[in-house]
Structure formats: C-alpha cells, structure tokens
C-alpha cells in the first residue's frame, strides 16, 4: 500500500514538472483586472438595485401619505409641515420632515415634532427606522405638554406595494410633562399573509406592554398614581382593505362583522388587579362596543370609591354591589382584597358591570 502511494506521488510530481508555467503568465496578467472589473460591476449593480428599491419605497410612501391626509381630513384632523425632503441615495434619510404638526380642525389639540426622519439599511430598503427630533409637544385644550423620549427603537416595513407591516416600538423612560412618566413601552404588530385571510380569520396580530407609569396627579381618581402594568394581546378579525379613505375601509370591515379579539388583557393599577379577555366591536359611528370577561381583585373597593365621588349611577351601583358581594371570595387566606369574576362591558354609550349600567359615557 505504501509503495502504491509513493508511486502515485512520483507520477504527480512528474506531471507537475512537465507543466509550462510560461504559458499561464498571460492568463495571470489578466486575472486581477478581470476580478476587479467583476467586483466593480457587482458593486454598481448593488448600488443601482438599492437606488431603485429606495425610489419604490419613496413612491409608496407618497401614495400612503396622500391617503393618510385624506383620512385625517375626513376625521376632522390635518397634517402640516414646514419642509419635506426625499432622497433615494444611500446613506441619506429616505424621508425627512421638518416641523411636522398633526392637529385638530375643530379643537385646540395637536402633536408637534421638530424633525421626523425615515432611514433604511443598504440591503433592505423597505425596513425603515423612524427617528424623532428632540423637541416634541402635545397640545391638548390649548395647553402644551412637552415630550421627552429616553432610549427608543421604532421600526416598520414599507414594501413597494401593500400596507405597512411589522411595526415595532421599544421605548424607555419617556416623560410627558404634567401628565405622566412612562418606564417602558413595547409594541409589536404584524399583518397575516393576505392569502390566509377571510372575513372571520385574523388579519393583524399585535401586543402592547406598558410598565411603570406615574401619572403625576393627572387624574382625580381613587386608584393610585402608579400603574405597574398595562398589557394587551389582540387580533384584528377580518381584513381592512384600503378604500378611498380609512373611514370607508373601516365601514366595509365592520359591515362584514369585523372586530378585535382581545386574547389577553392585564391591568395592575394598585390596588386594582384585573385580567380578562373578550372582544371589541364598533357601531356605525365608530363608538366602541366592548365585552370583557374579567377576574379581578379590589374591584369592589374601586366601585365604592367611585360611588363616593358621585362618578357612578347610585341605583346601578347598589345592584352591582349586591351581585358582586354574593360571589366575591378570597383566593388566598392572606389576600387583603376579594377576588371576583364578572363581565364588564361598554355598550350604548354606557359602562356596564354584571349587565347593569354604572355610568353613562360619551355625553
């Protein structure tokens, strides 16, 4: 076996010695220029492809912007800006707004941002990073509330066709002056593949997780000023297709029994602790019709406090307190507050507990 290997090795050396390397030198002389030309061509093609992708995203954004402005106008709002810049060349921002303002046409409400820009990477132009300027204000009833954002990551996909998708927001340490301090916000939403959607299947899924909110005396409310957590996991059932405007799309969606399925709701607002699931519909004027099946602690304490503030209907409250008292229990012997399972609803402009009206809303 060893002799066989040695023999083959000697044959290979003899063949290599017979090669005429002088004939290969002209080939080697052209090898590097050819490789450099190929690399330059590939780079040029990548740049052109990136430019065309970014141009397609910009065109889609312009169409969506026209649609959004029209929908805002029908809802009594408008959008204005001092300047807008589009740039299809990488690494410049795709879109940059200067002094953007979204405002109500009938009331003194607005959201003002000194700068908003949309940026994308080189290899995936439709994936956008949203950057906000340092100066932001919310105007409500004529009073200004400055917004300060801590660390945040805000992204969305805007393909050359179709609706925006894969929206994500991660935010920490936000402050809205005179209103609230927010420790953390996590938001994610994505559209289901269109071919899988029918009138009763999910078209969009998302969740919202808000933690450590301090209200800064915003509400004259029995509950404390600190909200530990608000969590919502929900799906939109039925497809909301773009019509002439968003309101028309919503009406067509509602006409086909479109609604929001609330898979998981969690509210920890001491002393109240509530979990639930249910559904959210809207009537023809887009007022909510909410039905939640809940389990909670300290709900009876909250109802007592709201009644003492004359916030609730006294007759309805009397009946509800009897019904809840009959089925409330201590889940743990050491619990300070009673646990109770009860349906909570918003319907016909009213808040209902145990199907009893506690408060008229939207008056």
Which sheet architecture does the biggest sheet show? Answer: 6 strands, antiparallel, barrel
- How many strand units? 17
Strand order of the largest sheet: 3-4-7-8-6-5
Element order: H for helix, E for strand:
HHEEEEEEEEEEEHEEEHHEEE
Q: How big a fraction of the residues is strand?
A: 35-45%
Categorize the overall geometry: elongated
Q: Report helical residue fraction.
A: 25-40%
Structural class label: alpha+beta
The radius of gyration computed from the alpha-carbon positions, rounded to a whole number of angstroms, is 31 Å
Mean pLDDT: 84
Total of helices: 5
N-C termini distance: 99 Å
Which residues sit in consecutive blocks of at least 5 with pLDDT less than 50? Answer: none
Structure description:
The chain has 363 residues and is an alpha+beta fold. The protein has five helices and 17 strands. The longest helix has 50 residues, at 25-74. It is elongated and about 90 Å long. The mean pLDDT is 84.
List the helices and strands and how they pair.
Blueprint: H1 2-17, H2 25-74, E1 77-86, E2 95-104, E3 109-120, E4 127-132, E5 136-140, E6 143-148, E7 152-157, E8 165-176, E9 180-191, E10 202-214, E11 226-237, H3 246-255, E12 259-269, E13 272-282, E14 288-297, H4 299-308, H5 314-327, E15 339-347, E16 350-353, E17 356-360
Antiparallel strand pairs: 1-2, 2-3, 3-4, 3-5, 4-7, 5-6, 6-8, 7-8, 8-9, 9-10, 10-11, 11-12, 12-13, 13-14, 14-15, 15-16, 16-17
